[in-house]
Design goal:
This protein is α/β, with parallel strands linked by helices. It is built from 9 helices and 7 strands; from the N terminus they run ααβαβααββαββαβαα. Strand 1, helix 3 and strand 2 form a beta-alpha-beta unit. Bound molecules: zinc ion. The site of zinc ion has 5 residues, from loops.
Length: 329
């Protein structure tokens, strides 16, 4: 078959055909055929073609905008996910996050001081017994606050009052039950609880000091008894008569709510409940009957304004001894 021969020496230069420059377009306002337009097509045909092109451009533009919106939405959706992934990687990674650790170190609290809960017996609608010109709730509040000040000034304790001034002094304020007072002390993480009361008797001659630790058989009995021993030591040294064997007694409420009293020498264990504040305390606790507020000698020594201060000092020294510290007040 004849075959088309190629020219072995054909020039590699390719000549371009001369390019005719298209005329610049101008708005065709007349509808007349422009140069280059095929003759025979009406101006309407060209106008329709321009409209179609314009419509196509609008559609393309719209599609582009829609596409951009979709892309933006996807990116916004993904960014939080990426942050979460990075955070998870940071948490579980071998390199610990340093910022929270540094914050913790900066916020590290001072070594915690032992909380000593002071319970001013009675208050509000519960005035306690009536003394020589004052109520039991007044003497307990004054003593408790004097003790609070001593412990705070000492600097080695964190004193806590189980009731507010309003709960103590406002006669319309509801009674805070002994169990509730103990629970408040527990909530503070108290290491020791002292409940302050004043004794009373129909016979004005009755006098002396006595206190009630958590009784035998309970978890905090031994440490409560040790605190009670420091208390009787201090009150005895002041010259106050110690009631019973040594001023330390255990009390229970019997079946008919009658009080059952035992001396410290009787270490038998009883199922009956003791004072509510001791029953609910989760730390060593003692209820102290500071003095007979119905006896004038007791009031002079431990019940009036100076007496409350004296009693507070004795309580403070006993607390220091219990913690194995020397008083600095
Ligand atoms: Zn009382």
């Amino acid at each position: 078959m004849p075959r088309q021969e190629s020219y072995p020496y054909a020039s590699k230069i390719q000549y371009r055909r001369p390019q005719t420059t298209a005329p610049r377009r101008r708005p065709n306002t007349t509808g007349a055929a422009r140069p280059g337009q095929a003759p025979g097509r009406s101006p309407d045909w060209y106008a329709m073609r321009r409209r179609r092109r314009r419509n196509r451009r609008l559609v393309r533009g719209g599609l582009l905008v829609a596409l951009l919106c979709v892309v933006a939405a996807v990116v916004m959706f993904l960014i939080p996910s990426v942050e979460q992934i990075l955070a998870a990687v940071g948490d579980s990674g071998s390199e610990p996050a340093t910022a929270p650790a540094a914050a913790k170190a900066a916020a590290a609290p001072e070594p915690e001081l032992p909380v000593v809960a002071i319970d001013p017996g009675h208050g509000g609608v519960d005035r306690g017994s009536e003394g020589l010109g004052f109520g039991e709730y007044e003497m307990t509040w004054n003593t408790a606050n004097a003790l609070y000040d001593l412990l705070e000034a000492d600097g080695r304790f964190s004193p806590y009052l189980t009731i507010t001034e309003e709960e103590s002094q406002d006669p319309d304020c509801a009674r805070i039950k002994p169990s509730g007072r103990a629970q408040r002390a527990n909530a503070q993480g108290a290491q020791l609880l002292l409940s302050i009361h004043g004794n009373s008797d129909s016979a004005e001659s009755t006098s002396g000091y006595e206190c009630y630790p958590i009784p035998p058989g309970s978890a905090n009995h031994d440490e409560s008894l040790r605190f009670a021993q420091y208390l009787t030591e201090g009150f005895g040294a002041l010259g106050q008569r110690l009631r019973g064997v040594d001023g330390i007694r255990y009390i229970y409420y019997g079946e008919n709510d009658e009080k059952l009293l035992y001396e410290s020498t009787d270490t038998s264990v009883h199922d009956d409940p003791t004072f509510g504040v001791l029953e609910y305390a989760q730390c060593p606790a003692v209820l102290s009957e500071q003095c007979f507020i119905t006896n004038s000698a007791d009031v002079d020594l431990l019940g009036d304004e100076d007496g409350c201060q004296h009693a507070a000092q004795l309580y403070y020294e006993a607390i220091c001894s219990w913690f194995g510290m020397e008083p600095n007040q």
